Amino acid sequence: MATMKDVARLAGVSTSTVSHVINNDRFVSDATRERVESAIRSLNYAPSALARSLKLNQTHTIGMLLTASSNPFYSELVRGVERSCFERGYSLVLCNTEGDEQRMNRNLETLLQKRVDGLLLLCTETHLPAPDIMTRYPSIPTVMMDWAPFDGDSDLIQDNSLLGGGIATRHLIDKGYTRIACITGPLDKTPSRQRLEGYRNAMRAAGLSIAPDYEIVADFEFSGGFTAMNRLLALETPPHAVFSGNDAMALGAYQALWQAGLSVPGDMAIVGYDDIELARYMTPPLTTVHQAKDELGELAIDVLIHRMAQPSLGQQRLQLTPELIVRGST
């Protein structure tokens, strides 16, 4: 495999001149540049990204750690992050924890050992990064996405789930529904708790009571929504409307209603949360609370790059405002 010295020897220049041509970071005459580029082509030389990163102490790589699932929200969010990385000249290394604490810490250590320039973390609060790992790499800028803060200086970007839960529930109330249930995600997750609290606040403000069995804790997955809706349908007095803590569970609820021979919104109105791409193609299209996933990914990358450039900045906490998208399910 050809080296930079081989290129310099063939072109009759110094290795520093070859470096300047490759990195385009200093003036080199057209004639010299042509000799260097000709030598590169002749030797099929490929610059070493590792060597360059060691010299510059920068890899132009960002690591992302998340708990992925069948929920399309995650793939759409990652798509936005990856696009933003590409547009800004960075590569993205993605690791999936699958909700396992040991796997999360192992992946985290691997990303840090690979000298990523920054980290994006999207996981559940029940599994915080091992303090000893974070202590060993104190200079790595980190942005938490949609995750409650832990003891540290990481920047934080969250959806205003409390507001979103209230918006979704008030829409059902404004439509005239009074028997409204809530299918919530796991209560170890801050967004789940806040969306549930938003639902409760809206019901309380409207003077509506919540039946004891109208709050179902599920798992943010399609199957969780399916099971939860079947539980609601089995009640002596089923609800007439449901706020689902995310779109995946809402789609599972659609399936349960279809299997029961019931219609949306004729027999049951449904509001979801996230506004995944599939929501608009359901029958009927799903009314949902929009999370700006592309904007969230872009903001996360910009905040991280800003942090990398100015590591002494104080902690940044940013919050995105949810928006109701009214479709046919209510």
Explain how this protein is built.
The chain is α/β, with parallel strands linked by helices and 330 residues long. The protein has three domains: 4-47, Orthogonal Bundle (434 Repressor (Amino-terminal Domain)); 60-159 and 294-321, Rossmann fold (3-Layer(aba) Sandwich), CATH 3.40.50; 161-290, Rossmann fold (3-Layer(aba) Sandwich). The protein is 44% helix and 17% strand. The chain is built from twelve helices and twelve strands. α9 (190-205) links the parallel β6 (180-184) and β7. The mean pLDDT is 87.
Sum this structure up briefly.
With 330 residues, the chain is an alpha/beta fold. It contains 12 helices and 12 strands. It has helices at 4-11, 15-23, 30-43, 49-56, 72-87, 101-113, 131-136, 161-174, 190-205, 222-233, 247-259, 293-309, and strands spanning 61-66, 91-96, 118-122, 142-145, 155-159, 180-184, 215-217, 241-244, 269-274, 287-290, 317-320, 323-325.
Structural class of the secondary elements? alpha/beta
| Cα gyration radius (Å) | 25 Å
> Which range best describes the helical content: under 10%, 10-25%, 25-40%, 40-55%, 55-70% or over 70%?
40-55%
What is the CATH domain class of the largest domain?
Alpha Beta
| Low-pLDDT sequence parts | none
Beta content comes to 15-25%
